[in-house]
Amino acid sequence: MSSFFVKVILPVLVVVFAIAAAVGLAKLRQPPEKTEESRPAILVNVSGIEPDNVVYHISSQGMVTPKLETSLVSEVNGRVVMVAEQFVAGGFFNKGDLLVRVEQSDYLTNVKAAEAALANSQAMLAEEKARVKVAEEEWRSFTSGTAPALGLRQPQLASALASVQSAEAELERVRRDLSRTEIRAPYDGMVRSRAANLGQFISRGTVLGSIVGTDVAEIRLPLTDTDMAFLTMPAATVTESNKVTLTSTVAGQQLSWPATLVRSEGMLDERSRVMYVVAEVTDPYQRKSQGQPILNFGRFVGASIVGSQAEQVVRVARHLLLPGNQILVVDKDNTLQFRQVSVDRATAQFAYIKDGLEVTDQLALSAISNPLAGTVVRVAGASQSIDDTEQPTQLADAAAKAAAAVKGQ
């Protein structure tokens, strides 16, 4: 009997007790607490919106060229007997300076001959006037009435007078040729190139050299139609609206020169489809004034032109302007929003927003991948909310409870 109990009944009781214990423990087990996982809000950098009055500056570039440029051409024939020391490439001269002289011997002889011919014509005229007077007296002594023109020698007197006028004209011509043997500077300037040399025989039409004026330099600046819309063309007097600042790097230094916008060429270039405006710089070589660096002809310069003024616009970085003229902002609820804006002007660096932004908006400066409207964000520099600061502690407590429950099983 005892053997039957040990071999049959006892194992059955153990199994039943084990099953009952397992069921009891299963009923006593508590499931782990469930906590909702929440992602922290995106941290973004923002800046405030500050409308302001902005004066637009239009950028361009161009080459410095002389306003006056002249090719010196001989008007007489002869041998060059004098060349001025300053008549070399790069030499400076003043208005009226003698640059080249041609041999004058033949022209002086022509002047003397013309003076002699004039004196002879004047003597013949005086003699003819005396004959006319004698003819009038003889006519009156023999008869009365009006004397005929031939009897009073009027044709002979007119011929003598014409001879005098012709001699005077010839004298003026030879004197003019004599003055042309001296080539003088027509203005203050600089020699660009020289083609005449001492002892060289030149003829009428020979190019002696090229000179440029140093009083004023010009810079042709190309502008697009968009740029022209923000440009105030020059008035009769120099104002802030037609001032230009030229810049260039010279010997490793960034230099600048003040200039004045004086005119527009008024025609679009057929190839580039741009319009040229002209700026002027007074005394670029500082010959009459001091205080500014020398601005050489041929230098390539950048130009910043003072344009029109815009009232109450917002300047933002150009990369913040999204396609379709949209701006990503953070509203008063700290959520991302897209604003459709009206752009007054856009350059490579900035965009100028005329309207479309609200006063409570802040510009989102951080790069956000695939931003969605309504996304909650955290503003860099602002204090965090209590939920955000306590969230790590709550997650840690939940993790500890789950581990304890698993261990109790």
What does this structure look like?
The structure is a single chain. This protein is of the alpha+beta class. It folds into five domains: 1-30; 40-46 and 323-409, conserved putative lor/sdh protein from methanococcus maripaludis s2 fold (Beta Barrel), CATH 2.40.420; 61-66 and 215-311, Efflux pump adaptor protein, beta barrel domain (Elongation Factor Tu (Ef-tu), domain 3, Beta Barrel); 70-99 and 188-212, no CATH class; 104-180, Helix Hairpins (Orthogonal Bundle). It contains five helices and 23 strands. The strands form five sheets. It has a six-stranded antiparallel beta barrel. A hairpin with a 5-residue loop joins strand 18 and strand 19 (336-340). It is rod-shaped, with a radius of gyration of 50 Å. Residues 383-409 have low confidence and may be disordered.
What features would you highlight for this structure?
single chain; 409 residues; alpha+beta; Elongation Factor Tu (Ef-tu), domain 3; 6-stranded antiparallel beta barrel; 5-stranded antiparallel beta sheet; 5 helices; 23 strands; rod-shaped; disordered C terminus
Q: In brief, what are we looking at here?
A:
The chain is an alpha+beta fold and 409 residues long.
